[in-house]
Write a structure and sequence with these properties.
- With about 200 residues, the chain is mainly alpha-helical.
- It is about 65% helix and about 0% strand.
- The protein contains eleven helices and no strands.
- It is elongated.
- It starts with 9 loop residues before the first helix and ends in a 9-residue tail after the last helix.
- The relative contact order is 0.12.
Length: about 200
């Protein structure tokens, strides 16, 4: 394979290639050679941008975590609009796309990768921990607006939403769950803490 071909936005191209391999073949198939072959570049390209393959994988996960920022802001801005269950349904469906589910599987399967990510995610599973914080922020805003009861245990609600959403999505590899399935999860989790008219 030619080594003199420059990749534009090499990091993004390598990340995209890794995600394609991950979706197609799973975390065990994710090697530096598989990534560079998928990206159509020499193996040395990856090592010019990352100290080693674990560093590459850590940056891949951090990139995916970084994308939660815009989603978190949009969800928080939705507080007080529509219905709480509807907002949560949309957020769960957006969050648990095939790539995110595959990234979580990758993190769970590699001890060294989780160790690399401990400085940014000291507890829990990277990506799921940050997603939980996104739901905590939203539910807190809804509680402040009076659409959720003052005594609602926001942390537990958020963890339950993330756990149920992940199990739903991970249980159907290669096939995204129907939106209605996420709606049932959201309704079931929050039904006891909603003020009338906020469902």
């Amino acid at each position: 394979m030619p080594t003199g071909v420059a990749l534009r936005d090499a990091r993004e191209q390598l990340f995209d290639a890794a995600e394609r391999v991950l979706l197609r073949e799973g975390p065990n198939a994710l090697t530096s050679r598989a990534v560079t072959t998928e990206a159509g570049c020499a193996k040395g390209v990856l090592h010019r941008h990352f100290t080693d393959f674990d560093a590459f994988l850590a940056e891949l996960v951090l990139d995916r975590i970084g994308r939660l920022g815009a989603q978190s802001a949009a969800l928080r801005d939705a507080a007080g609009t529509g219905t709480v269950a509807g907002n949560l349904t949309g957020a769960l469906a957006d969050l648990f796309g095939p790539v995110a589910v595959a990234i979580v599987g990758l993190v769970i399967s590699r001890d060294a990768l989780r160790a690399r990510l401990r400085p940014t995610t000291p507890a829990g599973i990277p990506l799921l921990t940050e997603a939980t914080a996104m739901f905590v922020s939203y539910l807190t805003a809804e509680r402040e607006l009076g659409r959720i009861t003052p005594d609602a245990d926001i942390d537990t609600l958020a963890r339950t939403l993330i756990g149920a959403g992940h199990l739903l999505a991970a249980g159907q590899p290669g096939t995204a769950p129907e939106t209605e399935a996420y709606h049932r999860v959201a309704n079931t989790v929050i039904t006891g803490v909603l003020h009338h008219g906020s469902a």
